[in-house]
Amino acid sequence: MPDDLNWAIGGEAGDGIDSTGKIFAQALSRAGRHVFTSKDFASRIRGGYTAYKVRTGAEPVESVVDRLDILIALTERTIEENMDELHEGSFIIYDDERSTMRDVEIPDEMIGLPVPLKRLAEEAGGAIMRNVVALGAACEVAGFPIENLDEALEKRFGSKGQAIVENNETAARLGREYVEEEFDYDYPYELICTDEDYVLLNGDQAIGMGAIAAGCRFYAGYPITPATEVMEYLTGRIEQFGGTVVQAEDELAAINLALGGARAGARSMTATSGPGIDLMTETFGLVATSETPLVIVDVMRSGPSTGMPTKQEQGDLNMLLHGGHGEVPRFVLAPTTVAECFHKTIEAFNLAEKYQIPVYLTSDLSLAVTEQTYPPEEFDMDEVEVERGKVVDEESIADWQNENEQFQPHFPTADGVSPRAFPGTSGGAHMTTGLEHDALGRRTEDPEVRVEQVDKRDRKVDTARERENFDYREFGNPEADTLVISWGSNEGAMTEALTLLEDDGYDVRFISVPYIFPRPDLSEEIDASETTIVVECNANGPFADLIEHDTLTRVERINKYTGVRFKADELAAEVKDVLAETGEVAQ
Amino acid sequence: MSAFSAIGEEEEIESEDFTPGTEPQPTWCPGCGDFGVLKALKQAMPEVGRSPEETLLVTGIGCSGKLSSYFESYGYHSIHGRSLPVARAAKLANPELEVIAAGGDGDGYGIGGNHFIHTARENHDMTYIVFNNEIFGLTKGQTSPTSPKGHKSKTQPHGSAKSPLRPLSLSLAAGSSYVARTAAVNPNQAKEIITEAIEHDGFAHVDFLTQCPTWNKDAKHYVPYTDVQDSDEYDFDVTDRREAGQMMYEVESKLYEGEVLTGRFYRDDPRPSYSEEKQAIGEMPDQPVAEQYFDEDHQWDRSYDELLDLHK
Question: pLDDT digits over A384-407, tens only?
């Protein structure tokens, strides 16, 4: 019996799709199963197709659903939208007593399970519980013991009182029993439960948790899809750790607030998406030239302009690397998985403070909406080190004063990093400005000082290259002739594609890069390969351009800009196509 | 040891402490009203008893923005229109700092207008000084948000078609809990008002009339001036929003008729500041955020497990 299962619930926005899906995902996680979730949704509160998809296995799962075994369809459109993923023998649970679903035709090769969701929900205490009835029905099909739902229902409805929880438990059981009694199919699934104790979280939450673990105690933001959940996560939690969240009037204010918090001495962060970065780019230059440590999160979505706000894209790379007038260094980090969102956030804070530089941390919509299970040890917060860099106090400040006892916040040190004194430090009074400035922070247009300060700021990048390990993650066969490179969230789909390629006799090396700047030099790796393919979720391949620029070698490209992330099977097929075109069929 | 060793230290504070060690040659024009702001601020500081090292002055862009170059303190010269969010966040992160923001009328009422409205609305405990010279000085005399209707400049050769912005009324409507107007030509009142503004617990907005002799008007255009509190002609209650609003409207209109009215126009002392409001609902810790990093007893790892438990 297969232990892997792909499950989805779909309907109209406002149908409670998200919370129902989450209950199922949580139940699976609590039962010691790995989960990887994804969402199809539109930018509206009600109306329009939306779906919550869960892939579950006893082993870790790293990629989205590419076939659907069980679909709860609250609308006919849900079936139409998922025809590509439904297959022979897929089970479709639907309410045939619902007026809009009465005439639904289930394709011949699939199995329809008409369940009177609303009627059974009313029996349990209210029509509002029809999705939970469907969950119960799905449990029967999936071979997943219904008791596992109870804890998740308690978590979801506990605040509404025990009676509501019990009604929901009854509703789930009515759904399960109905399927058991009314249908006589041979369900080929049996979801094995384990004693493992997993945590379930998405990329935005992992960034928020990473920020708290890293000692971030000041957050300013303005709501924007798909970054809002970072702020929602921190609100109510960061306070328990002595921090605060400020909702700004706009993104211009958000980054300036974060900047003010950082100047005053707090570890500070803001998060937004591309349109917010557009606005924040104004202040980015000030942050960089005043050498203020700041973490700026860009959860990318499809652009340009308002673009497709609820769709996936990795289109902001060049803006993050080059945005803003003039020349000033910044670091750009791109976590490749949900867990890496946590780890890279912590790293971003340390890099920001050690080098007194703005750090862009860029994830994307796929990471933001994907909930994934991990063992709790993955997020070991006792291991986190907070490195604040060259912060001076009353005693050490004398080392950084000039002959007139003036503090020198932009002293051109050998490593490019100057001392930092927070307002309130004795002996540290100084000014800083977005104007070009001297070591004291006073404006200057002196050509020698100008060159000295530009060089000093650039030198921080050289220092970081020497001291840090801007490395990549590697998968597959390191000796393979075919090299696939990607950045950011494509890692999961590509690692699964590797398995599919391997099954078909293709030998592939895969390098997943979490550092955009400074980034690893891939010259040797590319020299050693016959064919290099760069995979990214955008139209023009900005990362492929960077690789070509770095290595003076042309690469092949796989780009997707439909607004939907890569799937493993589709990536495997595309890699095969590229190899066929370039004559490098590896079989 | 706290990094904030200067805060709360007992010391004699003198006006001259706020003159930078190596004093840069001011680039303000002779006769510029901006000198009046600098002087008033330097004189106010000993009155409020805060030292340069306890003070953060955040400025915007324009002639006014140069204030931080000529005033000894922690200074942050930000970009055009953005001084307020930088300043108010610094105050939130370290409430023990004395935080002052300053900028011009273009900076505060034009490009930074949204921040002005929202900082007032939130009533941050800080002082905001707007150098109101009714013109863009540094870029050589273009029409600004407070330039009078019909004002001719290179950007408005036929005279401005816009009525000037009413900064005091806007401030009141937005939520400032202290609103005053003073003028560079009246140094005694300026010092008193700046002192009051700094001492005020909440967002104190001072519209500071600074003559621009190069592009606009010289000092004599602001003379005579009237202090409404000293005048028998004006009788209103500064704590009454409606009366204050009426008075402001009159003051704003009269400026463009050549009558300079200054003074305190509104104050709402009981109104809690944003930090107080946030603390009251548990959204902000009692211990200053910035201090925690230097507090050896601070429990960084407290309840990280609870954080993870939320995801189970």
Answer: 999 999 999 989 999 999 999 999
